[in-house]
Amino acid sequence: MTVVMTRADWIRLALVAGALVSLEAACRAGFVSKDAVIPPTVMLQGAWRALHAEETRGDLFYTLHTVGLSLVLSLAAGAAIGALLHSLPRLRRVLDPLLASYYAVPTFVFYPLFIVLFGLNRWPLVAIGFLFAVVAVAINTLDGLSRIPRAYRRTAAVMRLSPAQSLIHVILPAASPWFFTGAKFAVAYSFIGVIAGEFVVSGAGMGHAIAFAYNSFDNRMMYGLIVLLFVVVGGINTALWSIERRLYARLAGR
Amino acid sequence: MPASPDADGAIMAGRTARPGQGRLRDHAALIDAALLIAGLGVLWQAGSMLLGREALPSPAATVEKLAAIINDADFPAHAFETARAFVTALVIALLAGLVIGLALGASRLAGEVAEPLLVGLYAIPKITLYPVILLLFGLGISAKIAFGVIHGVIPVIVFTMNAVRNIPGIYFRAARTMRLSVMQTACTIVIPAALPEIISGFRVGFALTLLGTLIGEMFASQRGIGYMLVRAMETNDTLTVMALAFLLVVLATAASTALLAVDRRLHARAQPSSGS
Amino acid sequence: MNSPASGADVSDLHVRLHGVTRTYPPAAADRAPLHALGPIDLALKRGEFFSVVGPSGCGKSTLLDVIAGLAAPSAGSVTFEDRPVAGLVPDGIGVVFQEDASFPWLSVYDNAAFALRRAGVAEPEVRERVEPTLAFMGLTGFARAYPAQLSGGMRQRLCIARTLVTRPRLLLLDEPFGALDQQTRLLMGDELLNLWRETGATILLITHSLDEASLLSDRIGVMSARPGVFIDVVATGWPRARDSRIVSDAAFGTLTGRLWASLREQSIKALAMVS
Q1: Mutate which of B4, B6, B11 to disrupt the A interface (most A C-beta within 10 Å)?
Q2: Chain C residues with beta carbon closer than 8 angstroms to that of A174
Q3: What are the tens digits of pLDDT across the range C54-112?
Q4: Which single residue of A206, B216, C15, C59 could bond A63 by disulfide (Cβ 3.0 to 4.6 Å)?
Q5: Chain A neighbors of C106, CB-CB under 8 A
């Protein structure tokens, strides 16, 4: 697969590179306090070193595992809720204000509650990631199902498809791009929820590791871990966003 | 419809229902809201009885505790501290977001360059940047404000940018045939056309700025509601945690619902009602 | 003015509608039910090309739904090939909708093959039926392409091809060329006539274009404003081997004039209803 760089891509690359170079220069020249920010090259060194540390790999795996759990649960529950709401318009209307305001509510505040409920393990983290992600999946599933053009269902009826055939061969493919959007959000939000939780109270995971490094005044390690985390999460998100774009490109003109 | 931050945004901004159909719908909406609140209350009470009063305090106990907290002498100072940080962060986020978003929306190339960066920044767990912000701003209100701003500014930028980009080109052609000046075009066409989406961006920005400020308070402060929350967490004071959480939920929902009503009205006005 | 039911043999009648009405329940408790269609009496001869014209909202699409079995009539009966149709789509009917119903996730070939594959037809036979149909509709070169890469006209051709593959004996078309420009419409009309002669199917075409109806049909039914009933049925008398060049025939002008004479008043009424 060839990667084509547009003019915008080059400009963006130049901007980011320029910013990094300026930061490097500013740090080395002493414009920025060494206790606050370290030069990007040293950050990279820190990241490299962290990656080779067994403990970091353990933390990374812990976070990914927790995120994975949150993802699976939120996808399953979110899809089910979305489908349910689609088939029950009255319920959907009642829940509509809740869905609309959901992301305004700092659901994060319930985190301590989950610790009391589940104990000091990964499950409160999974619960937070789940709470963040599930509504996005539900809303997108709902949206996808609503956007299926009436003409598709009528075509299925004219072709005399059974309900199962209709579901598998028409409804699911037609709604899948929107479901993918929901999944894309589920990944991003699971990461956000889990890592935020790890920051606050946790014994393991990348959030915990970063907080620990901060509290130990180990800037090199801290920035190294931050860079590492950004690369992993950023990479995953970017991949999902570009797959999504291609998915919708097929629907151009609709 | 192609996926883009604005399509995502419509979802995240909660426009799941079709634009309303007038007064008949308002009455039904009130009944639905009452049903919803009652339903949630019942679930809460059931959960409390199931899990035990220590794990999940009952609605009654929570409200009682909240009343006690509000009446406490220290509370106004905390509330004021949070409000101060939040409002400052909000004003900065909305203004900066608006200006940057307008600039990015006006220039196609700038928008194209910026979009992946914005999307990337939105999706990353910004709490990871928190230690960096603490190192840069120190402990105190500036750090809280900074945190609120980095959370809230991005959706405002994205929504505003898309609002301007999505103005149909035909509007500008119509403006030229009417021989409007740049100023007139901006005031009478660009702003009204872009306003619904900009307001949506403000709504999402409001919510995220609040979240950012609160989380910031949990780490960087000796005052404020976030601080109260952290203290309660540390001392395992579940009742206080619940009471504060309840307060925040109610405030956030009230503000969000009000903004949502404005948002919907603007969008309903902008959409032609379906024809025959 | 011809009477709606022709006096032909009963067995020759492919589709019969008798006293068909369709009403929708009221939107609110204090409102009246919506009388959308009827009563309709209609008889289609096997192999004839029948068009329905009428103002917006008169129930033309509802009529199609009822004939196809997509909706059950509130009163009256519908018969297809001497068997009653009631809310279930019988075998042998094909429908092309106004909106583009091509599936964007399937290639042109897979779209065309869709119905056959779902019916369990074996691959070799699928290919045998799909390839000539795609060729007939001028889509052979695009078999591997996706609908998103095609123009609107080609996508409609794909929808028609998809229906043709199932060899329908009755073909219902609901303003299939609505989104196309006039020249393309005329050419597509010629293709439709070709198809009609090749397959011998009975065709019911719903259109808001008087030209199109005059050009293509054996008979034209003129519907009133809502609730739609037939206020006129006109026989065109065109020979079977016709194409778009009959627009230059004097009879074409007379025909269109007669249609408009019936339709003008109804259209004004319909316009008043909407505003």
Answers
A1: B11
A2: 103, 105
A3: 988 888 889 999 999 998 899 999 999 988 887 789 989 999 998 889 999 999 999 99
A4: A206
A5: 173
The model's pLDDT over C150-199, given as tens digits with 9 standing for 90+, comes to 988 899 999 999 999 999 999 999 998 887 888 888 888 998 999 899 89
User: Shortest CB distance from C68 goes to which of A150, A158, A174?
Assistant: A158
**Which residues, other chains included, contact B264 with Cβ-Cβ below 8 Å and sequence gap of 6+?**
B15, B19, B20
CB atoms B252 and A238 under 8 Å? no
Confidence (pTM):
0.83
- A2 within domain boundaries: no
Task: Kindly report the CATH class assigned to B72-270.
Answer: mainly alpha
**Structure confidence by residue, pLDDT tens digits, C21-65:** 888 888 777 778 888 887 999 999 999 999 999 988 888 889 999
Alpha helices in chain C, H assignment, sequence order: 60-68, 108-118, 123-136, 152-164, 182-199, 210-216, 250-274
- Give the mean model confidence (pLDDT) for residues B91-115: 91
Question: What is the SS3 assignment for C24?
Answer: strand
Residue of A92, A105, A111, A254 to mutate, testing the B interface (most B Cβ within 10 Å of its Cβ): A105
Q: Does C148 touch chain B (CB under 8 A)?
A: no
Identify which of C199, C139, C197, C142 has the alpha carbon closest to the alpha carbon of residue C166: C199
CATH number of the domain within which A179 lies: 1.10.3720.10
Q: What is the pLDDT of residues B156-214, one digit of tens each?
A: 999 999 999 989 888 988 888 888 888 888 888 888 889 988 998 998 899 899 989 98
Q: How crowded is the C-beta side of A202, counted as CA atoms within 13 Å?
A: 29
State the total domains in chain A.
1
Domain ranges, ordered by start, for chain B: 72-270
Contacting A with CB below 8 Å, chain C residues are 68, 70, 89, 91, 93-95, 97-101, 103-106, 114-115, 118-119, 146-148, 166
Euclidean distance between CA atoms A136 and A186, whole angstroms: 7
CB B147 within 8 Å of CB B216: yes
Q: Confirm whether A188 is domain-assigned.
A: yes
The domain in which residue A200 lies consists of 39-249
- Among A123-127, B30-34, C134-138, which is the least confidently predicted range? B30-34
Minimal-distance CA residue of chain B relative to A239: B120
User: For the structural domain made of C1-92+198-275, what CATH number should be given?
Assistant: 3.40.50.300
